[in-house]
Design goal:
With 170 residues, the chain is mainly α. It contains 5 helices and no strands. Helix 1 runs parallel beside helix 3, helix 1 packs antiparallel against helix 4 and helix 4 (95-123) packs antiparallel against helix 5. The N and C termini lie far apart (52 Å).
């Protein structure tokens, strides 16, 4: 049986997180360009896209500090799956709701990934590298909280627009 050093596990997690954030961008950017009747969602999504771009920069800085690089293959593969997911929802009559559900689930996936990365950084005695990861975690927690707190209002607005024959889809 082979052993894996904590630093190596941490680097793998960093590369996975980098690819995950590329996937997040490939999911959010198409949504943003399609939103018509939900300016509050568009505003929050735009903000989180900018945060996600900063998260990628933080991850790249951590990788660079370890003399490591991202995984271009993982980045590309997850970006493609994100685009496919976004495209799949665009055909749905309740696109805005499906996107909100998917975004909420993805935010919670990211939260779990960052919690794990912070733990690995500390376990590998790389405490200083946990700091930027905690910043990413806080942004993901804030986005998940916003989605959670706004799901009922979004659903109600969707239902009201649908009831009155307005374009509720997006």
């Amino acid at each position: 049986m082979t052993s894996t050093q904590p630093r190596d596990l941490f680097i793998t997690g960093l590369r996975n997180a980098h690819a995950m954030e590329h996937q997040a961008l490939s999911i959010m950017k198409p949504q943003l360009h399609r939103i018509e009747n939900y300016p509050e969602v568009a505003e929050k999504l735009d903000q989180h896209i900018r945060e996600t771009e900063s998260q990628l920069e933080r991850l790249e800085e951590v990788l660079t500090s370890l003399a490591e690089d991202r995984s271009a293959l993982k980045d590309m593969a997850l970006s493609v799956t994100g685009m496919i997911a976004a495209l799949g929802h665009s055909a749905a009559s309740d696109e805005i709701l499906k996107n909100a559900f998917a975004n909420f689930a993805f935010e919670n996936f990211e939260i779990a990934a960052y919690k794990s990365l912070v733990t690995l950084a500390e376990y590998a005695d790389l405490h200083a590298l946990a700091v930027p990861l905690k910043a990413n975690l806080e942004e993901e927690l804030a986005m998940a909280k916003w989605l959670d707190e706004n799901m009922a209002a979004l659903t109600t607005k969707f239902a009201a627009l649908s009831q009155y024959g307005e374009n509720a889809k997006k």
